[in-house]
Amino acid sequence: MIEPTDRGFTLGDGLFETLLWQGGRLHEVAAHLDRMAAGCGVLGLPAPERSAAEAMMRDAVAAAGLAETRAAVRLTLSAGPGGRGLDRPEAIEPVLVATAAAAPRPTTPARLAVSGVRRNDGSPASRLKTLSYLDNVLARREALAAGADEALMLDTRGRLSCAGAANLFWMVDDRLFTPALDCGVLAGVVRGRTIAAARARGIAVEEVAAAPEILRRASGIFLTNSLIGLRPVDEIENFRVPQSRMLDDISSDLGIH
Question: Which helix (H) or strand (E) holds 152?
Fold first, then answer.
């Protein structure tokens, strides 16, 4: 049961990571725990002990009966109970929990709708996986209401940022592009692997600040996160997006099928 004064519950004071469980193991554990530890440094929280966190996630998979299933494993860290107001108590008692749920991989390309909800590129929280995810919730709801699968979010200056729950990539003239982190972008684990895999193939990759109009020149667009892997986009608000073989090549390099 959640403590009524838990700061993650009352203020969104905390972080989370979502990992893929597939083939009987957790994927990219070190990268996810590294990112949580880095976020703890920004928020002034103690990072969880790594072996205990991994054991907790494995236990969550077992408790949910998902050991033989493709699953999403969420590790949530709250700043813990804190009384009333914004200030943390002098001695904080962080709370760490793990949960697991079945997570089939999408089998169809995504359809995007541009959201009116903007990523706050001026906020440190926009580059962290914090418990304050309401903007993403609202953006996704807006996209679903428009008949799309996912939201395309811009930052406060109208530049491309991300999807509601994924990083964004596009291809122009055999070059791969993705929004720069200072456009309010989370440094996704699969985002980083994708950039590395493309460069290993000799593909030029640029992290840019770009207006959404650039996507009409794209020869391919795709989304990435730890659960969907690389998911192609085939439509943005009635604009049909070409499909590129580059996506298949990079997916193969990453072992995502």
Answer: strand 150-154
Structure tokens at 167: 């990083």
CB atoms within 10 A of CB 55: 12
Residue 2: its pLDDT value, please?
83
Torsion angle of the four alpha carbons 158, 163, 167, 170, in this order, in degrees rounded to the nearest 10: -70
- The domain that holds 198 is classified in CATH as 3.20.10.10
In which element (H, E) is residue 211 found?
none
Query: Do 249 and 124 share a structural domain?
Result: yes
Would 43 be classed as within a structural domain? yes
Q: Is the pLDDT assigned to residue 257 strictly greater than 70?
A: no
In terms of Cβ atoms closer than 10 Å to its own Cβ (0-12, 13-18, 19+), residue 43 is: middle
Kindly report, residue by residue over 34-76, the tens digit of the pLDDT: 999 999 999 999 999 999 999 999 999 999 999 999 999 999 9
Inter-residue contact 186 to 149 (CB < 8 Å): no
Adjacent-strand bridge partners of 29: none
In a domain, 67, yes or no: yes
Q: Quick check: 61 and 67 in contact, CB under 8 A?
A: yes
Q: Is 162 helix (H, G, I), strand (E, B) or coil?
A: strand
* pLDDT score, position 253: 74
Alpha-helical (H) ranges within 162-244 are 189-200
